[in-house]
Amino acid sequence: MSETKLTASTRTEFGKGAARRIRRAHQIPAVVYGHGEEPLHITLPGHETMLALKHANALLAIDLDGSTQLAIAKDVQRDPVKNVIEHVDLLAVRKGEKISVEVPVHVVGEAAGGALAMVESQTLHVEAEATHLPEGFEVSVEGLEAGASVTAGEVSLPSGVTLLTDPETAVVVLSAPQVDEGAEEGEAEAESGAAEPAEAAEEAGEEA
Q: The whole model's pTM is what?
């Protein structure tokens, strides 16, 4: 995964009022922690950060006063109404270091017989090298029938990625397609209605 460079500045003001002023200036308050160091309070450019964090487990190169710190987002707080980023917790990482992350799963393929793929686990917990974190895992349901399932242990992982989720955990379960009972009743009534005139015609013919 390529890293995204973000130029940060040191944050000296704290509290809700300061955070609002930072966001009005199109910046995002953030904190970097990890490796036993004191938390580092910074501000990040709003638009660039928002774009970078659209990718799961994005690797960020935080440029602060001429020095660069690699980090990933561990917690992103968003406004529930406006859906804008209010604060970001960043975990400092190093090349070669292995860390645990949650990686989203994506269902691909077409199940057999119209079976529906129900995602039971939205993410898998894995361990991977900090600068090569996967953005997502594809879970194929191609040709699977209703009643089948795919467990965490059956998901194909890239080289160097170790599964931490219980291998027996169901990730995707295939269920039978839902039948519209109203539509079935309508079809049955239509068939019944069509049969009645035919029977009446036969009876009329016999009487004649």
A: 0.76
Class of domain 99-175: mainly beta
- pLDDT tens digits, 69-127: 999 999 999 888 887 889 999 999 999 999 999 999 999 999 998 999 999 999 999 99
Assess contact for 40 and 31: CB atoms under 8 A.
yes
Per domain, the residue ranges of the chain are 4-93, 99-175, 180-208
CATH architecture of 4-93: Beta Barrel (2.40)
Q: What single string gives the DSSP state of each residue in 122-150?
A: SEEEEEEETTS--S-EEEE-TTPPTT-EE
**Residue 83 CA, distance from chain mean position:** 16
**34 conformational bin, left if phi > 0, alpha if psi -120 to 50, beta if neither:** left
